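agent> fetching stored inputs for the sulfopyruvate docking request
agent> found them:
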Amino acid sequence: MLTNNKNVLAWVDEMVALCKPAKVVWIDGSEEQLQALRDEAVSTGEMMWLNQEKLPGCMYHRTAVNDVARVEDRTFICSTKKEDAGPTNNWRSPQEMHGMLTPMYYGVMEGKTMYVIPYSMGPIGSKMSKVGVEVTDSIYVVLNMDIMTRVGKRAFEQLGDESNDFVRGLHAKADLDDQKRYIVHFPEENSICSINSGYGGNVLLGKKCFALRIASYQGKNEGWMAEHMLILGIENPQGETKYICAAFPSACGKTNLAMLIPPEIYAKQGYKVWTVGDDIAWLRQGDDGRLWAINPENGFFGVAPGTNLKSNPNALHTTEKGTIFTNVALNNETNTVWWEGLDKNPPVDATEWKGAKVNGPEYVAAGNKLAHPNSRFTAPAKNCPCVSPEFDNPQGVPVSAIVFGGRRAKTAPLVYQSFDWKHGTFVGSIMASETTAAAAGAVGVVRRDPMAMLPFCGYNMGDYWQHWLDMGEKLGDKAPKIFHVNWFRTDSEGHFIWPGFGDNMRVLMWILARCEGTADAVETPIGYEPKPEDINIEGLDISLETIKDLLSVDKESWMEDITREGTGIEAFYAKFGSKLPAEMRKQLEALKARLA
Ligand code: GTP
Ligand code: SPV
Ligand code: MN
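agent> prediction call returned; pasting tokens
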């Protein structure tokens, strides 16, 4: 036993009695134990070693074909009262849900091993960190959790012997039946149940389930925030680093922005970029009154397709050792990995993500994808060439700016700044983005995704906006400035206009200059915009005209975005009834007046 904590022991006993595993293994976090599990997963065919010379410590895994992304329609928030889950979450009463789920877990691990994984979200020793315990029947889950979180005995030390403040996570792969797949959260019970999946955000319960859905609820009650945000630092030539948090929906560029390579014009002056986090930020007011951020995770669960030496060399280097690849394609000749956008040479002797041997170039030429669009790498943060020296700092880092953004072909300009925190909260609340392969369902449909939290807010989104407003009151004039960006505007042929990736730093530099009060702005109906000449385009194959175009605000399409039936802002707000903070309504009316 790794702990004397009676609350943990009692809960694990209960899970064992329910699932009836043949064996129980506590994950202590030792390299010997992990190595034995890797070998066991290879011996059963669950995982595979990749080329150990080219990719030391790297492994490969393929999920079931019906199990490749988060399942939002099968994800539930089970608060006692329906209105506490709100109109954007699926809800069942805890009683009804337990009544359905409990029998599904009876004896579900018979003949199998139950792994008990203690883990800390956040650096060990940080007041901002929290502990979870996940029980699972999957070695793949254990090995991923080991990369993504701080597992083992150290997590129990963080919890202590008396505390009951740990999140209970029960996961069973069961039959992987997608009709019986459930990802269920009980915020009031501090617990999560996941069944019939073996994929990413559905089963690595520390990630979206705990660090966002449960944690957002805890944050509301305890006065802090859990957000779907990357955290990056920009160090100037004088050696001072400023930190930015950015919330973009799934597969909309967080990992890429967090690891960006500064363009030549900044690199030669000595600017550097440091990655603190690529997906989740926990934010708290510090003793100095400012907002401080930690990344609760310890690794990156990143989208593979599109990652290459040009778009994101730091991510690619991060995956060169100790990484698990899921649903990418195999190059059978070299026993290495491949995905769309890695290079222009799909392997001839390839295995596509579902497991069929194919001729890569022919297969791709026929319009097929070798890697699943949501195929991922699970890589340790410490591998990242630009991992921040503050990564493990228990205090976190102070936040200068918060940036919202989505994938919008039109409407949203390259960048704008909110007038103040309240308006910034409004800007976050009206975010919209095209859907991506990160969740099951249609891709490319514009939907409202407030603060990139639509699938991740563990309580009523109206109360969540109120919590944002309350945090702003507390932070007062020390609050970070709030911005909105859009890297994804397209021209009439559907091509991205803005080069994106590393060049996004040009926009971040204006953002930081605004925070320091050293850049001008133009007031528009939607917020402050840069003067076009204040976006540095030196070294870019882009004209000032294009920047003007990227910054243009079409009042009619903004009005349309407000009033559109079904998916407009007004229709969206109407769903919240009396839970919509009066301030949000006021902000919307003010925007309409400015646009008129
Ligand atoms: P999750 O892990 O699902 O939360 O995704 P994420 O927000 O970290 O997205 P990621 O950085 O993995 O990017 C997803 C996709 O967007 C990849 O295919 C990238 O190539 C693409 N992408 C990222 N940044 C940019 C950009 O600045 N411009 C363009 N055009 N595409 C980008
Ligand atoms: C996301 O979808 O936002 C992810 C991947 O980061 S998952 O862990 O599957 O949620
Ligand atoms: Mn994410």
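agent> quick read of the result: The mean pLDDT is 97.
agent> awaiting further instructions
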